UniProtKB/TrEMBL annotation:
<protein>
    <recommendedName>
        <fullName>F-box domain-containing protein</fullName>
    </recommendedName>
</protein>
<dbReference type="InterPro" id="IPR032675">
    <property type="entry name" value="LRR_dom_sf"/>
</dbReference>
C-alpha cells in the first residue's frame, strides 16, 4: 500500500475550489458558494458505502470500531448496525474481558471468523486479565467459529504464557511480535534464550498462509509451507535468525509466496548463499531486506521476475549493487516502488540505477547519507526534462522526519541556488511525539505495515503512555462536538 498521505501532490478538480469567508468555511461549486456550516458531513456517505469503508479501516487496525462509535451519532448508528464490523477485536490491558464480551454481544450470532489483536505486557498483575482468552478461543472452536487472524504483541513473559495456553499455530494469519525492549534484556534463567514457533509439528494443518514474527525463531520443519503467501521475519538477532538451510528449503517450497521480509539488527552476519541452487519465486511481489547480513549474496540466489516493490534498509552490502543484481537477471522485473533507508549511496549513481527499471513510479529515501539527492536530481532534469518521467512520488526524508518532495520543484529560484526550490514538509513537534511520528513515517515508507503502533514500545514507555492518557479527558462542547481537554 503506497503511503499516499505522505505526499501533498493531489490532482485538483477544476469544479471544486477551496474558499473561505469571514464567517465559515465553504466550497465554490461551479462558481456558487455553498455554505457547509452546520451540515453533518458524515451523512454525505450512505450507510452501505460507509460500512465498506469501516471494514477496510478495521482491517488496517482492529480498534477502529471503538473509534467509529464515538465520532458522531451517524457513524455510531452505522457501526452498531453493521454486525460484521465487530468481528475485528483489538484488546490491551484495559479491561480486555469486558471489551471482548461487548464486541461479542454486538457481533451477535453471526458465525463469521474473528480477527483478534492482543497487545499486552505481563506487568502489575495484568497477566490475570487474560485468563479468559484460552477459554473463549476454545469456545469459538467448539462452536465451529474460526479465527481468521491472531496478532500478539507482548513482552517475553506474556508471550511465554501464550505459548503454553494458546494454540498459536492453527490460524490462517499469525503475527507474533515480542517487545524489542525486552528481547535485549532477557532474564538469565526464567525464560529461554530464544523463543521458537511453532512449538510442535503442525504440518498437518494447512490453513496458515500468513506469518509475521518478531523476536521469535521460526522452525520451518514443523510448518506446512506450501500455502504461505506472506512471510515476515522482523528484527532477528543471532538467536532468532533462521537457519539458512531451512530458509532456502522453505522458500523453494513456497510457490505462492507474494510478500517476504527478513531483518537482522545485530553484528555483521556473513552467509554464503552461492552454495544453494537458485530459488525461483514466480509470484513474489514485495521483498524487504534489512540489516548487516549478506543481502546481496541472498539476492543472487533468487529469481524474482515479477517483483513490484523492493525495500532495503540499514544494509551492510551496497544498496546500489542490490539494484544491479535485481535488474541483471535477464529482463528486469516490473519494479514500481523502491524504498531505501539508513544507508550510504552515491546520488548520481542511484539515479542511474533507477533507469534500469522503466516501470518505477514511487521512490522513497529515508535518512540516507550521500551528496544531496536533490542536486543530482535537478541536474538530470535540467539536462533531460523527461528523465524518469514515470515517477509519481519521489520523497526524501531526513532523520528528524522532515520531508522534501523532489517532484514539486518550483523552478530555478533563490532558495536553492540554480537548482530551484522544492516543497518541504516539516514536522512541527519535538520530543516523544516527534520520535513516535518518525517511527510511523519510517514503518509506512518501509512498508512495515504489519507492525502495530504499539510495537517498538518498551514496558516502561507503555506504562508512561498510559499515565499520560489518564490525564486526558473528552468533554462535550455545544458548538464544536467532541473536544479534547487536557488537565
Amino acid at each position: 500500500m503506497s503511503p499516499r498521505f505522505l505526499s501533498i501532490r493531489r490532482p485538483i478538480n477544476s469544479d471544486i475550489k477551496p474558499s473561505r469567508t469571514q464567517d465559515s468555511p465553504s466550497l465554490l461549486l461551479n462558481g456558487r458558494n455553498t455554505n457547509l456550516a452546520g451540515r453533518d458531513l458524515g451523512r454525505l456517505l450512505p450507510p452501505e458505502l460507509l460500512t465498506v469503508i469501516f471494514e477496510l479501516a478495521a482491517q488496517g487496525h482492529h480498534n477502529f470500531p471503538a473509534v467509529a462509535v464515538v465520532l458522531c451519532r451517524y457513524w455510531r448508528a452505522t457501526a452498531l448496525g453493521h454486525a460484521p464490523l465487530w468481528s475485528y477485536i483489538w484488546l490491551n490491558h484495559r479491561s480486555p474481558h469486558k471489551k471482548y464480551l461487548k464486541w461479542t454481544q454486538r457481533l451477535g450470532d453471526l458465525p463469521i471468523p474473528r480477527s483478534i489483536a492482543v497487545v499486552a505486557v505481563a506487568q502489575a498483575g495484568y497477566l490475570t486479565d487474560w485468563k479468559f482468552l484460552p477459554m473463549e478461543l476454545d469456545r469459538l472452536q467448539s462452536n465451529n467459529i474460526g479465527i481468521q487472524s491472531f496478532h500478539l504483541d507482548s513482552d517475553e513473559e506474556m508471550f511465554s504464557w501464550a505459548l503454553r495456553n494458546l494454540s498459536l499455530d492453527t490460524f490462517p494469519e499469525v503475527s507474533l511480535h515480542v517487545d524489542d525492549g525486552c528481547v535485549t534484556k532477557r532474564p538469565p534463567s526464567r525464560y529461554p534464550s530464544s523463543f521458537f514457533w511453532p512449538t510442535h509439528d503442525s504440518r498437518d494443518d494447512r490453513s496458515t498462509h500468513s506469518i509475521s514474527l518478531r523476536g521469535v525463531l521460526i522452525h520451518f520443519p514443523w510448518i506446512h509451507v506450501d500455502n504461505i503467501t506472506k512471510l515476515e521475519i522482523f528484527q532477528t538477532s543471532n538467536d532468532t535468525f533462521p537457519d539458512p538451510d531451512s530458509l532456502m528449503m522453505a522458500l523453494r517450497n513456497m510457490p505462492h509466496l507474494q510478500t517476504f521480509a527478513l531483518e537482522f539488527f545485530e553484528d555483521l552476519k556473513i552467509i554464503d548463499f552461492s552454495t544453494y541452487e537458485p530459488v525461483r519465486l514466480e509470484n513474489l511481489r514485495h521483498l524487504q531486506l534489512a540489516g548487516s547480513w549478506s543481502t546481496n549474496s541472498f539476492l543472487r540466489s533468487l529469481e524474482i521476475p515479477n517483483l513490484h516493490s523492493f525495500v532495503i534498509d540499514r544494509a551492510f552490502d551496497p544498496p546500489l549493487m542490490a539494484l544491479s543484481i535485481i535488474a541483471s537477471a535477464g529482463k528486469p522485473p516490473p519494479l514500481r516502488r523502491l524504498s531505501i533507508s539508513r544507508s550510504t549511496v552515491n546520488s548520481r549513481r542511484f539515479l542511474e540505477r533507477l533507469t534500469l527499471f522503466p516501470s518505477v513510479t514511487s521512490v522513497y529515501v529515508v535518512d540516507v547519507t550521500s551528496h544531496p539527492i536533490r542536486v543530482a536530481w535537478s541536474e538530470h532534469r535540467q539536462k533531460d526534462p523527461e528523465f524518469l518521467s514515470t515517477l509519481q512520488h519521489f520523497d526524501v526524508y531526513q532523520r528528524n522526519g522532515n520531508c522534501q518532495d523532489l517532484l514539486s520543484m518550483k523552478g530555478p529560484g533563490t532558495d536553492s541556488g540554480s537548482y530551484g526550490s522544492y516543497v518541504n514538509r516539516h514536522m512541527d513537534v519535538a520530543g516523544d511525539e516527534q520520535e513516535r511520528r518518525c517511527r510511523a513515517i519510517f514503518d509506512l515508507v518501509m512498508q512495515r505495515t504489519s507492525l502495530y503502533p504499539a510495537c517498538f514500545q518498551t514496558i516502561a514507555s507503555s506504562l508512561e503512555r498510559e499515565s499520560r492518557a489518564a490525564s486526558t479527558r473528552f468533554v462535550r462542547h455545544s458548538s464544536s462536538g467532541w473536544r479534547l481537554w487536557r488537565k
